[in-house]
Every structure is written in C-alpha cells, then in structure tokens.
Amino acid sequence: MSIDTTASASASAAQNSSAGSVQVSVLKKSVDLQANAVLQLIQSATQPSELASEGSVGTQVNTHA
Questions:
Q1: Structure confidence at residue 21 (pLDDT)
Q2: Distance between CA atoms of residues 27 and 22, nearest Å
Q3: Radius of gyration of the chain (CA)
Q4: With contact defined as beta carbons under 8 Å apart, do 19 and 27 qualify?
Q5: Largest CA distance in the chain
Q6: What is the tens place of the pLDDT at every residue in 18-48?
Q7: Distance between CA atoms of residues 17 and 11, nearest Å
C-alpha cells in the first residue's frame, strides 16, 4: 500500500466519522423535540376540564333518547 492510498483512506475515514457524529447529533435533537412535544400533549390531556354547572347545555340528561 502506498503512502498516497493510506492518506486517502485515512482522510475518508475521518470524513465518515465526522458525518456520523453530525447525524447522531441531529437525531438526538429530533428525538428531544419529539419527546417535548409528546410531554406537552400528555400534560394538556390530563388537565381536568370544568363541567357545565348552569344553563341547558351539558347540565341535563335526556333519558328518552
């Protein structure tokens, strides 16, 4: 193996390693953003909603339907 071939292979391996690191970083950011979105969705779904206490909508049950 010549020195030129070895240097070329080394440079190629370094570029692949660098690209892999960037891809992993982007993936981690994407997963973190998705986790935050899911957490917000779950928190909004678990908040109790207030029921109607007056008026005709939501306070009367039609048992003959």
A1: 86
A2: 9
A3: 29
A4: no
A5: 91
A6: 788 888 999 999 999 999 999 999 988 876 7
A7: 10
